[in-house]
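Researcher: Before we compare anything, I want clean individual predictions. No alignment, no superposition, just each chain on its own. First chain goes here; please echo the sequence and then give the structure tokens.
Model: Echoing the first chain and its structure:
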Amino acid sequence: MRNKQALESEENDNISRLTERIRELESKLSEYEKSISDLTSKNVTYTDVLNHVPLAMLSLDTFGYIQFINSTFSKLFDYAQTNQNQHVHISRFLQFDDTRLSEKISRLLDDHVQFDIETRISDLDASDSYFRVRGISITNSEQKATAHLIIIGNITQRRLAEKDLILAKEKAEEGNMLKTAFLSNLSHEIRTPLNHILGFLELLLMENLPSEDREEYTQIVRGSSDILLKRIEDVISISKIETRQMDVHNDNLAVSEILHYVFNESKRIQHQHNKQHLQIILNEQTDYRNLIISADIRKVHQILINFLDNAVVFTSTGQIELGYFIENMNGICFYVKDPGIGIAPEFHESIFEHFRQVDNSPTRVVGGSGLGLAIASGMAKLMKGSITLDSTPEKGSTFYLHLPESIISVHSMEPSYNQLGIDYSWTDKTILIADYELANFNLMKMMLSKTKVELHWAKTGEKLISHLNEFKVDLVILDVDLPGIPLVELINRIKEQDRQIRIVIIGNELDFEQTQVIEKEHVDHLLFKPINKPELLHVINRQFVVS
């Protein structure tokens, strides 16, 4: 009986211990399951993080089999993420075949040599894509490699930016070289005529100088002065174009008048370059003899004279042609054609850039500042026009000035040019020159001496009004900076005195505010200093013809 009780007690104890052990195992199993769940959750979190990294990431085991790729890698190389479960070796990844990267990965797997390189992966796409690739080994506490990680970043934009910076640097250096050459050339171009002027003026002061020598020296001083003035004007013009301070003053004028003005200037240009043997012809369209255009006439003159000057300089023999034709019904195209040395195709664009010449070497045959065509192109654009070029080496060049939508009429205005070179005669006209400087009045007085026009001088605005009350005036040449009475008020008072009086404003390049005032007050013409005789006669004659 006692043994039976003992056995039952022992059995109960065993059951109790077994129950307790089961509970312990259930608790540990629950903890293990929780741990597994936590690990799985963390793994999912890490995967999500890596999939949002903008770098392509590739994980390899120690044998080179793909363990993991993130979504960036999948998109970049068009490689499905599901492939990572297929135990694919990196050597079978075709995009890396026969590349520098393939060699680096092999050394990483075999010798654990880590790398950081920039390379192209040409098979990736049709563009020139560059990548920075890093290969690192992941080690355990015993410093043994357990996996390898490849990180790839697209640096194409950075490389392109670097390339652009290099090109910009090279262009800036080239620009500095061109500017240096330009300044050196400009120094020579200014000093040479200045030395001529000073030297021959000294000779002209000599007593008993033969009249033939005096005439020759005077012509040299005049020619050198024109060259010096042209160089200074070029620098001022290009500065105004660059800073967008050059204004456009449109006026209506007969095309034949423009052509004859430029044609008359050709004689001076030939003499300046000692090319009197060249033949320059004017090709007028007889069907459109009275064609009228609206444009900035001063700029048109300057552009065509620049074309003509280049033609004379680069032509040794033959015939130079100046002309025009109608373009697109209401546009006009002026041209200058020469049989000179021509221009190679590779220079057709660069010659319109600042400081550019086909020959920039110190041993070049012809001079010049290298700004003429850049200025001409800038002026054409200001007038909403353009300049084009046809040229073949050793066969000659043709420069075109296109002015679209510039034609006003084909018959409404008679030309006022002095076609046959006959002296102007204005015996029945009176001109009042209003300028503070007596020297400016004397200069214009000498220029107009052969015209037999009656001249008067006004030093101030008050004196100008006083003269208008004393005698009849046909034309007022008014300096923009005349003291005494504000410009607008003075113009209004002249018009109140006699609305038939023509007004020509004369001065230096006008600022924007003055330009607006003049255009608003309907002044008849703008004439800029420095004044040259042909232009002055041309402008005055036109005012008398119109009146």
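Researcher: Okay. Second chain, same rules.
Model: Second chain and its structure:
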Amino acid sequence: MRKLLAACLALVMALTLTVPAFAAGEADVSVIGGADGPTMISITTISGALQPPTQEQIDAYLTAKGGTPGQINVMVDGQCVPFDRVYPALISGRTMVPLRGVLEFLGAKVDYDAAARTATVTGEAVSFTHVIGTDKITIGEGGGELTMDVASAIRNGSTLVPLRFFSQALGYDVYWDKDYRTAIVIDKAGFAADFDKSFTILNSYMAEQYKTMALSGPLGEEVAFSADVKIIDTINGSQTYQISGDLDMSIDEKTLNLSGKLELGDMMKLWDAVALPLTGEAAPSELADVLSPLAFDMIASGNRLYLKSPLVSYIMRESGYSVPNGEVWFAGELEGLTELMAQYAQLVEQMKTMTFGGAIYEVFSMMGLHNSVLGYDTMIQLAQFYQRMMGDDTWTKSGTAYKWHFGEKEFEKLAEDMSGEKVSLAEAGITKYTIDMTLRQNGGMDMSMEMAGEGIRLTMKGSGTASKSSFTGSFQVQNICDVNFKVDAAIKTGGQTLQTPPAGAEVLSEADLQKAA
């Protein structure tokens, strides 16, 4: 069910908003359409947002935000910290900022003991002491000691600390915008908590889902899917081709196992029906046995990747390598896999407490906007967009369930609210646009959607529980094809993962293949 909810929310986001790099200014909302019909809604705030800012633009923006042009600035949650005597400075390659100015801007109280050369900081979230001239921070009573990346320094009577201090001591996210020469400090927890006030319905539902999942040990998913692809041919007669398969995945903090079996025999017929008239080349007959069915197994552990599949063996032989008959595992190095597994472990831990406000912040981070002073404004607009779209006010209680509807009228009103201009989906060629979700007290969820415009139509509906979900749908392109599909997924927990192929298996490394070539 968590997969279903995540898929639904992701689908809603993807189909209703494309946010390039936002910048300050009035919003510009437009419906972008292609030759095959409308594709997306684009919301931007100034033209040329991707172009490097001019010095005049930089100075004007910093001034509007309370900063000082020509100096290194510190921006906290979208506002520049005012400095009257001592400004941030680069010292030995480090960005050093006044301790008192930033902390008092954050609402903390700062006291100095001149004799002991000690600063005592009392804040709402954390309190600590720091001996000036050292690189140590003592957190509260019995809270332990932190080591900064460089010692603090005194300049014109003010204590300067390294920028990263604020992430170490306060848990803030800290970034740097080189164009604006500005440090960006963001209270992630505060941002999420503020916007989560508008998402209590979704957050309560998500919290109940987390309770039903065992997020320890290997976490996996089993997926079965099938599709009927009808190629429309009014001269020779339409033909229908079938595709189906099963996938089984298990993953923990160190290892990923993935196996599957795909029935792609009809792909040969589909190739001949579609590609043969265009290219004059029929599908290789040797592929028929490989694709009926196409089986594969993959093990990713550490930075090592193992892959077994008749298709891979076929490709390697066609490329001139000597590959033994039977089952063969191909082994190679996969750079960055260890880091990927570590990120997975972190994600699983975050899932236990993830909220909608936190998810918006993660989207903001994935968009790469955190390294820009304009990024915070973007994040606020993004959050406001989803507040208006999926906040508590948009849900209707029906018995013990909550219902949500987002159709043409809701879409156009939201776009108009964001842009200040009237937006018409019909004028953009969109003839149907509706998404509905129902959250049930027992942890179930139902969803349906339909979108159509200029010869294209997509429909989908699904339902599920905390441990399983099911989707059915269709995709139609006028006078070209009709595709009907079904996807069933089930979450599994526990078990063990394989870190290497089974004992006695045939394993070929890259070196082995080079020797045999």
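Researcher: What stands out in the second chain?
Model: The longest helix spans residues 375-390. Additionally, Residues 114 and 428 are 68 Å apart (CA to CA).
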